Amino acid sequence: MELTFQQLFEKFTENYWNLILKYNLRQMSNNGKSAYSSLEKILIQAASENGVIRYLEYNSLQADGRNALVLEVKRVCKRNVVGALYGDFEGKFYGFSLKEERIWISTVVYAFLLKYKLEIEKLNYYAWAKLLEKINAHNPPTKLVDKLELATPKRNNLLFYRRILQKEFEEQCCFYCGRQLNEKVHVDHVIPWQLVREDRLWNFVLACPACNIRKNNRLPKKEMLELVIQRNEIMRVSDMCVNSIAEEFKNYSGDMMVNLWQYAKMGGFREWI
């Protein structure tokens, strides 16, 4: 599994946005050296330059503003975080290249993370909550776990994607059973949301309610996945793939989708039909 620094620290920035600016949760113990961590300083500085953005959701920020924040977070974390965590795990968790700005996670470790994803998330929230309670003891936070969960990506309203698939690309039949769709149309994550945690056009198909419910949190057969990849390639080079649609295919490739499918199987996700 490979990630660019841009992908990694974009999520990093998004997760900390609410915690630092919306909920005012301190991230650093008062050790007499500095009142704020480098990450806090970046976000607080951005808010001081434009007081309005403090009250906005991260995804509501203008693209230029988000990109500038991620660039600063990446710069700091590239220097202070990537190598430190590598050392903490004795190089067994992941490898990285500062020059190429990418990391690659051990196949064995990634398979383990996928298999025990939910359990690891719960342990992570518990440990994170205990740390933040200690650091913010002067101003005890309430519903801390809820705030941590709100700081991570959430599922969006999928009506936008349904309209694109139906109107722009004329998908009128259930991807799984082939029946004509009526007014009750579901938008299904081909690779389950539980794994991807991101809404992207390349991972969506239209389905009838019955198929979507039966598929639930499972994977399509390999041959069905190949059909999605073929469709995505048509979309990607289509004249209609402009502006917001083109953004949906940022960092996408057919190989990436196959790798996600394979890793999901390794992590215990079952196939359907």
Automatic annotation (TrEMBL):
The source's superkingdom equals Bacteria
Boundaries of every HNH nuclease domain copy = 164-213
Q: Which InterPro entries match?
A: HNH, HNH_nuc, NA-targeting_endonuclease
Instruction: From the record, give the transmembrane residue ranges.
Output: none
One family name in Pfam for this protein: HNH
| MF terms in GO | endonuclease activity; nucleic acid binding; zinc ion binding
Q: What is this protein called?
A: HNH nuclease domain-containing protein
The organism of origin for this protein: Anaerovibrio slackiae
User: Upper taxonomic classification of the species?
Assistant: Bacteria, Bacillati, Bacillota, Negativicutes, Selenomonadales
